[in-house]
């Protein structure tokens, strides 16, 4: 990295309750699970941890409940070196929780109960305005009230701060408000919810991205899991290939991509290289169980990055000539 950036994440903090099973139960069916893990999660918190592990200075703006999970969540941020001075305990409200079910192939199904996350308000964002003005990048998701997301995006645009919106969980949004983001980064399901178009193939992703750009968005990255990522803007559309791995648990891989990308972009990496790096960081996160627990530290990532071949970005930060990266 060229410099240590300051990333501020405005978003959710949950406790993940992860159950591993051979297959998902059918309606009305009770089955035995193989394992159970409890860990810290929430898309906002996960992205903050990924950015921190990649070398950024990270601050979190969030709300937690006054139950057992609230103080523990704040302690987790602090232990990881994340500034939690703007993580507030909300009286009379539970912390957010996310029951997660993972089958034997590594695929997951997640149910989020927002709890205190739903109390994060535009006035909270204003209360953190001094912190936000000092950020190199603000990262947002949709596990907090949508009016808070829109308010933060408008704040970022007014102050010239790069903003990344991960529109997850997927839902229809006001594209005029979303256009305040510098990057909008959905996966296939979220891209479909945002555009109203099915996204099942790479061509579908190109068509979806083109529609979103026509709707006023400035830059769209559609994450495609094992198929890498597709980046689209006024300068064209580019597929960034994946790094092949055999996943153990894909939970949190999207958050690993977002948090690491925010760090790589803000640290001065050219866009194409930043996306390629985020592809690898997300792939590495699938090799272990859990969300934050599966994210690798910068030293491990850099060793893996040095061991792969990827085309360098040309001068000016444009896209390199098409080529497939090779994992070792």
Summarize the topology.
Layout: E1 6-10, E2 14-20, E3 35-41, H1 43-53, E4 57-65, H2 69-79, E5 83-90, E6 96-102, E7 108-110, H3 122-127, H4 129-133, E8 137-140, H5 146-158, E9 162-165, H6 175-178, E10 183-184, H7 188-195, H8 202-214, E11 219-223, E12 229-233, E13 236-240, H9 253-266, H10 271-285, H11 298-306
Parallel strand pairs: 1-4, 1-8, 2-6, 4-5, 8-9, 9-10
Antiparallel strand pairs: 2-3, 6-7, 11-12, 12-13
Helix pairs in contact: 1-9, 7-8, 9-10
Q: What can you see in these coordinates?
A:
- This protein is of the alpha/beta class and 328 residues long.
- The chain has a single domain (6-13, 42-96, 116-306), classed as UDP-N-acetylmuramoyl-L-alanine:D-glutamate ligase.
- It is 33% helix and 22% strand.
- It contains eleven helices and 13 strands.
- The protein has a six-stranded parallel β-sheet, sandwiched between helices. A four-stranded mixed β-sheet has the order 3-2-6-7.
- Helix 1 crosses helix 9 (253-266).
- The radius of gyration is 19 Å and the shape is globular.
- The chain starts with 5 loop residues before the first strand and ends in a 22-residue tail after the last helix.
- Mean pLDDT is 91; it is low at 312-328.
């Amino acid at each position: 990295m060229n410099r240590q950036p300051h990333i501020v994440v405005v978003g959710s903090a949950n406790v993940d309750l992860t159950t591993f099973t051979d297959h998902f139960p059918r309606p009305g069916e009770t089955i035995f699970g193989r394992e159970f893990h409890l860990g810290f999660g929430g898309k906002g918190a996960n992205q903050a941890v990924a950015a921190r592990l990649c070398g950024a200075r990270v601050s979190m703006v969030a709300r937690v409940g006054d139950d057992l999970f609230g103080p523990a969540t704040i302690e987790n941020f602090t232990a990881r070196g994340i500034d939690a001075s703007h993580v507030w305990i909300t009286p009379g409200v539970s912390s957010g929780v996310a029951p997660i079910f993972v089958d034997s192939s590594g695929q997951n199904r997640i149910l989020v109960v927002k709890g205190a996350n739903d109390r994060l308000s535009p006035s909270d964002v204003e209360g953190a305005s001094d912190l936000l003005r000092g950020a190199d990048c603000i990262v947002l998701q949709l596990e907090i009230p949508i009016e808070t997301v829109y308010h933060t995006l408008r704040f970022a645009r007014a102050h010239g701060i790069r903003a990344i919106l991960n529109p997850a969980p997927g839902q229809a949004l006001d594209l005029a408000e979303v256009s305040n983001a510098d990057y909008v980064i959905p996966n296939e399901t979220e891209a479909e919810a945002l555009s109203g178009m099915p996204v099942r193939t790479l061509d579908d992703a190109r068509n979806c991205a083109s529609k979103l750009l026509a709707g006023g968005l400035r830059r769209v990255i559609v994450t495609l899991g094992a198929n890498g990522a597709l980046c689209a803007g006024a300068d064209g559309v580019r597929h960034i290939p994946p790094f092949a791995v055999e996943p153990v648990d894909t939970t949190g891989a999207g958050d690993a991509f977002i948090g690491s990308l925010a760090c790589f972009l803000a640290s001065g990496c050219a866009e194409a290289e930043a996306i390629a790096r985020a592809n690898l960081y997300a792939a590495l996160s699938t090799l272990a169980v859990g969300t934050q627990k599966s994210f690798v530290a910068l030293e491990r990532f850099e060793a893996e990055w040095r061991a792969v071949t990827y085309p360098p970005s040309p001068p000016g930060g444009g896209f390199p000539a098409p080529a497939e990266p090779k994992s070792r």
